[in-house]
Amino acid sequence: HLTGVQLHVLKALNSREDIWELSNMMFRHLAIVGALLLCVFACVHSNKIVSVPVLKAKAKTKYNLWSKAQLQVAADRQLTTSRGASNVNSVPSLPVGGDIWPVAIFWAFIEVGTPGQKFPVAIDSGSYTLDIPLINCKGCTHKAPNNFYDPKSSSTGQAKQCKLLEGCHGLGSCGLNNGVNQCKFSNTYETCDPHNPTAPCTISGFWYSDKVVYGAEGVSVDFGAINFQTSNFEQFQNIDGVIGMAGPSTNTSVFGQMVAHNVVKDNVWGLCLHEGNSNGTITLGGIDPSLTSGPIEYTPDIGHGSFYEMKMNGLMVGDSETPGIESSIIIDTGTNILLLPDEGYAGMKKVFESKCQNSSLKGICNLNGGKGLFEDECFEMTASELSDFPIVTLALPGVNLDMPPTSYLLQGYQPGSSPTAYCLGVAKTSPGGLQILGDTTLALYYTIFDRANSRIGWAPVNKTACGAIPLN
CA 162, CA 181: separation in Å to the nearest integer? Predict the structure, then answer.
């Protein structure tokens, strides 16, 4: 579905060496992941901590071998000073765009090249690299505010050339581009087409190196320029670009290069999602305490530098434990809902049905053989009927993440449903598949991705501060 798109991990036709670690981990499961997008219209750089406001947009879930739906908030210092982003408690904060539904992504602006060309990109904690459309791309969207990279218009842009017999040293394979041998890539995804979830979607193109500005000083980054994408790539028809926030700090990592060149203070970034004047805030290089309304609680990041992954002690529906839950869960800003393996999804359904002994949950109980919430049906509910549903708790070491009914029951979530009807914002991946924590959970917290100390921090979000900076 458009909400949390599940994606099997498919081997990219031209995978990168820095992703093999990821692929080795991912092939343990037949995985799926979703895409989330953030947008930044203004940035502030102060004490090497950059905070970027987040905007809501439609998002999907996608994992691929070397790059997933990526996106990130970006703007340079000139944009920051000229467009009036604000400092809160001496920590710069910037706005972001997008939403959980129906846009299903959170995205932000970056600038690429000299002079800078502005691109909206999805902020993606589930992938490693930056991918943006190349001029004359076949199949890329022309919708505003999307853009096309023109290397000839940048004095700092360079094609990543190669020799056919030597390859590209981790940047895919060597092929011809306008008569020049250049490193190329091809990424294939599933669940990118909501009308045909098993149909593959593909982006392909060539590697370039150029200056990238992401809310602070620019850094030189190797990135993918898309010259072809299949027409069924629903997510990229909204925001045609992605910036990965996971993985090692190689030349293909924008944030990694910002840390390596001391553009930001610390190897830490944070994200909160809340609709206000904008739709959230991303912080780069530090923590903005004004975005919290309580203490930060940490749990270990067991992703070993690939994805952001946490140990899972269990999933509670009210006071009942859900069977079939895997032992770990991945955090993916590019996935808009909670995703469970088939066994966990079936277990959650049974636990909800067991509640019918003492309550009458609409869409769960008294179905008389009809389809319910777990069969993708949606139901009109009163405030009283909605409040009958239990809290869902993700139990992690040192942290319990509570999801009230309004976080897992989403209005108008299914295609064709009434905009006021409530639908289940939980989906299944595959037998033994991955568990993905998406935006419906993230929206309740200011989440800290502490790469330096291999831990994830969770604090209740300050709804007054998060998303307070207007988009210009």
Answer: 6
* Residue 106 and residue 125 in contact, taking contact as beta carbons nearer than 8 Å: no
* CA dihedral of 12, 17, 21, 22, whole degrees rounded to 10: -30
Phi, psi of 83 (to 5 degrees): -110, 5
Quick one: the chain helix, strand, coil %, rounded to 5?
15, 35, 50
Environment class of residue 411 by beta-carbon count within 10 Å: exposed (0-12), middle (13-18) or buried (19+)? middle
Max distance between CA atoms of the chain, in angstroms, equals 71
Tell me the per-residue pLDDT of 131-184, one tens digit each, with 9 for 90 and over. 999 999 999 999 999 999 999 999 999 999 999 888 898 899 999 999 999 999
* Cα gap 208→223, rounded to integer Å: 6
Q: What is the C-alpha separation between 198 and 432, in angstroms, rounded? A: 17
Helix H or strand E segment including 22: helix 20-26
Is beta strand 97-99 parallel, antiparallel or unpaired with respect to 104-112? Answer: antiparallel
For residue range 405-450, what is the model confidence (pLDDT) as tens digits?
999 999 999 888 999 999 999 999 889 988 999 999 999 999 999 9
Per-residue tokens: 145 = 């505010």
- Taking the alpha carbons of 69, 347, 353, 393 in that order, is the dihedral positive or negative? negative
Exposed/middle/buried for 368, CB within 10 Å: 0-12, 13-18, 19+? exposed
Residues 6+ apart with CB under 8 A from 391: 318, 402, 403, 404, 405
**Hey, what amino acid is at 235?**
Q
- Tokens matching residue 175: 């092929």
Q: Name the pTM for this structure.
A: 0.83
User: Given CA atoms 324, 325, 327, 332 in this order, what sign does their dihedral have?
Assistant: positive
**Cα 344 → chain centroid:** 22
User: How far out from the chain centre does Cα 208 lie?
Assistant: 23
| CA distance linking residue 424 with residue 135, whole number of Å | 40
Supply the DSSP string of 338-404, one letter for each residue.
Answer: EEE-HHHHHHHHHHHHHGGGT---TTTS--TT---GGGT--B---HHHHHTSPPEEEEETTEEEEE-
Using DSSP, state whether 35 is helix, strand or coil. Answer: coil
Vertex 217 angle, CA 221 and 209, to 5°: 15
CA distance 218 to 45: 12
Q: CB count, 10 Å around CB of 27?
A: 12
Question: Cα 433 to the chain's mean position, in Å?
Answer: 18
